[in-house]
Amino acid sequence: MKGRTIVLDHLGGREAAALILDGQLDDLLIDDPDRPRPGAIFRAICDRPMKGQGGMMVRLPAGRGFLRGVTGYRPGAAVLVQVTGFAEEGKAIPVTPKLLFKSRHAIVTPDAPGLNISRQIKDEEERLRLRGLADGEVPDGMGLILRSCCEGAEGAEITEDIAAMVDLASAVLGDSDGPDPEALTEGDGPHAIAWREWTAPASVVTEPGGFALEGVLDGLEALRGAAVRLDGATMYVEPTRALVAVDVNTGGDTSPAAALKANLASARALPRALRLRGLGGQVAVDFAPMSKAHRKQVEQALRAAFRADPVETALVGWTQLGHFELQRKRERALLAVPSESLS
After folding, report:
1. What DSSP state is assigned to residue 68?
2. What is its EC number (predicted)?
């Protein structure tokens, strides 16, 4: 089945959204009501500096956060912070003082003045139109980013988005002082994120039971195991406490040609495999044995695959043992759905 379909439903009692591309489950968002959502904004209270780690621990309404790479904050001071991802088990929630107020067409940046238009918009006349729409819409001291989906969009839709984000930013900034930590925004859930981020034309299914009707549950069942079946090979994706281990296996064919074919297929499939499972942090890939001459081809395939992936990922490079390492932002909830939810 060709085309794009967005399915908005619930999974195990949690809000969820799925993106189906040409009949295959391509992306998945699942809410985690037990943890703060990435994008949520808090008034935090500085607790103590972590000199060895280059940051500051802060108190949140429930739990603690970690501001990485900041200086000049004193214990007891109030600071506005935004959640950047999900915390590892037993660790502080990652937060940043650089706030982003993000909607479908616009991102307001209180600490970064100026206007930026997505580089994906190439047409100069369109860029001039968007500059005209944005002129005077943002107060002095705030910045604005116009996103790629602004291209060809109605002017009223764009200016309404800008106004909504400016109003939200102004309200949050006006509530920055206080003696106690407080939640100021909840962050967007999967349905709102799907509307905001999956902007390419698609059919949208919102009826209850949509996951079953559109085959999403079948796709989720396949994700419950570590194996990712490829043409003539298998890739195993297994999270451990320290990292995500990925192993590429060619099966019975150990020829150099089979190894290269399997490694290239794994490189192309890896972003989707990590994305659907909600995996982040350090990733170590043990490709099938290959010559150093073939490494460049595999690395190029990796870079091309992750360039199109929405989750921020840094490709670190090859280790002395021949593994390839990546560092991936933890901005997705882990796929941990009770089996009864898939029935």
Report:
1. E
2. 3.1.26.-
Q: How far apart are CA 267 and CA 271, in angstroms?
A: 8
Provide the sign of the torsion angle of the four alpha carbons 16, 21, 23, 24, taken in this order.
negative
For the question of whether the overall pTM of this predicted structure is more than 0.85, the answer is yes
Q: What is the DSSP string of 289-314?
A: P--HHHHHHHHHHHHHHHHT-SS-EE
Q: What is the pLDDT of residues 228-239, one digit of tens each?
A: 999 889 999 999
Q: 101-188 sits in which CATH class?
A: alpha beta
CA angle (8, 314, 85) in 5-degree steps: 45
pLDDT in tens, 295-332: 999 999 999 999 999 999 999 999 999 999 999 999 98
- Could you read off the pLDDT of 42-87 as tens digits, one per residue? 999 999 888 777 789 999 998 899 998 888 889 999 999 999 999 8
DSSP state of 288: P
Report whether 101 contacts 107 (CB < 8 A). yes
What is the C-alpha to C-alpha distance for residues 198 and 178, in angstroms, rounded to an integer? 37
Q: Could you tell me which CATH number the domain at 1-31+193-222 has?
A: 3.30.420
Q: Which two tokens stand for residue 333?
A: 């909830």
What per-residue confidence (pLDDT) applies to 336? 67
CATH code of domain 41-96: 2.40.50.140
Q: In what order do the strands lie in the sheet with 313-318?
A: 227-230, 233-239, 244-249, 281-286, 324-328, 313-318
